[in-house]
Design a protein that fits this description.
Blueprint (H helix, E strand, L loop, with lengths): L7 H6 L2 H28 L9 H26 L4 H24 L5 H24 L9 H29 L5 H10 L1 H14 L16 H6 L1 H13 L2 H31 L6 H33 L1 H20 L4 H29 L2 H27 L9 H37 L1
């Protein structure tokens, strides 16, 4: 899965087109981090609001589900429209939408209009990231896709974490924790989107990022109206790509369990760890969580290209699932904020590793004519699984987030997923070897 060159990172970064696309992504995700911090703070860590498990899960569902259901339509467009134009248009639209969201936060108006604005902004963010993934094979050699995905995903996650970190720093030093403070943070996010759009316009031509030339017999609208047929073709195309399909299935299961743990972690920091309803202390404690998560992303990105080259992507996915289960059971049960940082660290190693391997399998095995649709299907299952996990947790977790039973069940599910994936991979490989042996005789 990795290139044969001796310096994969250096040779990947030597690709000028890849560096340019990386810059577009970093600028955008820094803005995303600022906006996410403002959004989460105004809804969850706001002393003027009370939060329950069901309320957090419901809010997450409202924000993610609509785009998740419309995502496949976007995938069809990514296989027809210039992906560079998609990147620019999505960034410009988010400048307007996030600016409006900041005004609504400032006046404490978080009703239907606010939800609609945030919905569209988040949907455009997912479209943006799908376009980046679909465009990556156009700027880097196929042999270096693992390293490219590792660098791109890590840089994007770190940029988002940096945006969150800057937001938290501003809330601790320059602005107050409340509606006006969160509105100020949100108003800074469009700077990242503006930089991203400018870089995309200046660094790429309209057709540099694909899609490859397609027949012009149908316009974009005609293709959207035929989305069911096109998606059926895309799913059938994916199913015939064994490594990509299996990895995507595992990623979906892991994401569901990640949703359970995310809700538990948020509730623990909101309602269990702080004393005397110390919201400011909760926000500060979350900074440590973001640092641990960012470090996990870095380590996952550093290890994945090297270890997939040595043991294969399938074995590496199995290994990180087992490691996540062990960390969860070993460091999670005491329910101490310091030990949970270890859990966050290991879980983010696993999440980043699984994402890199899955994206690489899709990029390597799926034809470019289907790649946008497949990545949108991947994005849809990614979000749906996360929401399902959060909703399942909302009805079994207490409002404090502390539940040893749920934690142990998640650890057991991680081990079961690892075992099932390893067994399925072994059977598939055995069948493949049998066919190969028969063809040689």
């Amino acid at each position: 899965m990795t290139g044969s060159d001796g310096q994969p990172l250096a040779s990947t970064l030597a690709e000028r087109g890849f560096r340019r696309l990386l810059g577009v992504r970093i600028a955008s995700q820094f803005g995303d981090g600022m906006f996410q911090a403002a959004l989460a703070g105004s809804v969850l860590f706001n002393p003027e609001r009370q939060t329950t498990a069901v309320a957090v899960a419901a809010g997450t569902a409202v924000l993610l589900l609509p785009y998740s259901l419309l995502g496949p339509f976007a995938g069809v467009l990514l296989d027809v429209w210039s992906r560079r134009r998609v990147l620019v248009a999505a960034s410009i639209a988010r400048i307007v939408l996030v600016g409006l969201a900041a005004l609504l936060i400032a006046v404490a108006s978080q009703g239907l209009l606010f939800m609609l604005v945030v919905l569209v902004a988040i949907g455009l963010n997912r479209l943006f990231l799908s376009a980046v993934s679909a465009a990556t094979p156009h700027v880097v050699a196929d042999a270096r896709l693992v390293t490219a995905n590792a660098v791109s995903g890590t840089a994007g996650s770190l940029a988002s974490s940096a945006g969150i970190g800057c937001a938290l720093l501003a809330l601790q030093t320059a602005v107050s924790i409340g509606y006006h403070g969160y509105a100020t943070v949100a108003a800074l996010a469009p700077l990242g989107y503006a930089a991203s759009a400018a870089l995309a316009v200046r660094r790429f031509g309209a057709d540099d990022l694909g899609p490859d030339r397609v027949p012009r017999r149908q316009g974009a609208w005609a293709r959207v109206t035929g989305v069911a047929r096109d998606l059926g073709d895309g799913v059938r195309h994916l199913v015939r790509r064994r490594n990509a399909a299996l990895a995507l299935t595992v990623q979906t299961g892991f994401r569901m369990l990640f949703g359970v743990l995310t809700l538990a972690l948020l509730l623990l920091h909101r309602n269990y760890f702080p004393g005397d309803d110390d919201i400011a202390g909760s926000v500060t404690a979350l900074a440590g969580v973001f640092v641990a998560g960012a470090l996990g992303v870095i380590v996952g990105a550093a290890l994945t290209p090297r270890l997939t080259h040595r043991i294969g992507g399938q074995r590496w996915i199995t290994a990180v699932l087992v490691a996540a289960a062990m960390a969860l059971a070993g460091f999670g049960l005491p329910f101490r904020s310091d030990l949970l940082l270890v859990v966050v660290f290991v879980l983010n190693i696993a999440a980043q590793s699984i994402k890199i391997v899955t994206d690489t399998f899709i990029q390597q095995e799926c034809d470019d004519a289907y790649r946008g649709r497949v990545f949108s299907v991947s994005d849809t299952t990614f979000n749906l699984a996360y929401v399902v996990g959060m909703f399942a947790a909302a009805f079994v977790l207490p409002d404090t987030g502390r539940s040893p039973v749920v934690l142990l069940l998640v650890a057991a599910a991680l081990l079961a997923t690892a075992a099932a994936y390893a067994a399925r991979r072994w059977r598939a490989q055995a069948a493949w070897d049998a066919v190969a042996d028969a063809s040689r005789t």
